[in-house]
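Sample pair:
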Amino acid sequence: MPAKTYLQQVGGRLKQIAATVVSTGSANGGDIVGLGDDGKLHQSLLPDGFAPATWTGIASETIAAGRLVNIWSDTSGGTPVAKARLADASAAGKRAWGYTQQGAASGGTVTVWFGGANSSVSGLTAGADVFLSASTPGGVTSTAPTGASQVVQRVGVAGSATAFMFAAGLEIELAPAAA
């Protein structure tokens, strides 16, 4: 959807002007600001220091939008390289550090968000705790994992059936099965 417009007097005449949704710097000084297609202000319109907490790196597997991710050190090439993969509560070692807002192909660039609203989910109960899933890598569930050697990690609270506020909690590795 194009930016909303307003009327401005230019040279004694009224002229329709589009609101600025992405700033290029001082050239946009004095412009009227408009919301983007997502209904939010673009980061370029915010004061310095108000950037979201994110990390941009390489996806080591295909990651869909809204999935929880784990950042890990890939040493297969000799030099350690930080990469992102799907978080997974089925076993220790893949805790959720953040989530994606856009998907990425394996080997592609992925941005991991460390906080904020993840609105690319479904099936949640408003007001309920949200946990990293042990059955769907990168997924979430309203029920904490209970299986032997699985990991319980609370990752936020649901604001609705389709969104939750992400906050990476500590992970608890459940006891292994009795011998």
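The first strand starts at residue 5 and ends at 10.
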